[in-house]
Amino acid sequence: MCLYLEYWLLVSQLADGAGNGLLVLLLLPMGIKRPKSFAFLNFFITFPALKTNLTTRIIMTKEELMRKAIELSVQNVAEGGGPFGAVIARNGEIIAMGVNRVTPDCDPTAHAEVSAIRTAAKILGTFDLSGCEIYTSCEPCPMCLGAIYWAHLDRMYYGNSKKDAAKIGFDDAFIYEELDLKPEDRRLKSEVLLPEEAIKAFQDWENKTDKVEY
Ligand SMILES: [Zn+2]
């Protein structure tokens, strides 16, 4: 009975929230005496412990998550990028982080939010980030705001405003103003060209029966 109790306590301690299921796996083959009648419990005790404990889960408050985004933005300035950082979290747990890499990567779309969205989608294996929230060190530009909508993020938090960004030369505000104008009044000149040919892909899409909607 004592042996049963000892074994049970050992397994329980190693497999608990602070423990490590791997130790249980390592110790079991080393011949620690265990009652045979309890052997079937090994799987139920060890496997969930392995699954949940091998990757440390850190749950953060919204302030902590925003501080992380801010920390990324500050660090990124020191490393040659723009002063922007973003974090995507689900239930307080960081899924992905991103920083502005426009100049180092020669990529005008490498904004912190877009980078974080791309990474989060890859990590979660889905284009739909419902259930996640984004923490960004600055109010997003229209491109990133669009990406946030497309990713179906539940909520957005931001530190600096677009006016703060405009003051240091990142004038996203003008793009927001452009969006309010009629196409013909925008700074970017645009015209409709070959619409009767372009419509083919839309017709194909409409007729497709096995399409994945997003
Ligand atoms: Zn952006």
Can you tell me about this structure?
The chain has 10 helices and 4 strands. With 214 residues, it is of the alpha+beta class. A 4-stranded mixed β-sheet has the order 2-1-3-4. It is globular. Zinc ion (ZN) binds next to helix 7.
List keywords for this structure.
single chain; 214 residues; 10 helices
Amino- and carboxy-terminal Cα gap? 59 Å
Which outline best applies?
globular
Give the beta-strand count: 4
Helix percentage: 40-55%
Structural class: alpha+beta
State the strand order across the main sheet: 2-1-3-4
Bound molecules: zinc ion
Number of helices: 10
Cα-atom Rg, whole angstroms?
25 Å
Average of pLDDT:
83
Can you write the helix and strand succession as a string? HHHHEEHHEHEHHH
Oligomer status:
single chain
Low-confidence stretches: 1-35, 49-53
Report the β-strand fraction as a percent range.
5-15%
Main sheet attributes: strand count, strand direction, barrel closure:
4 strands, mixed
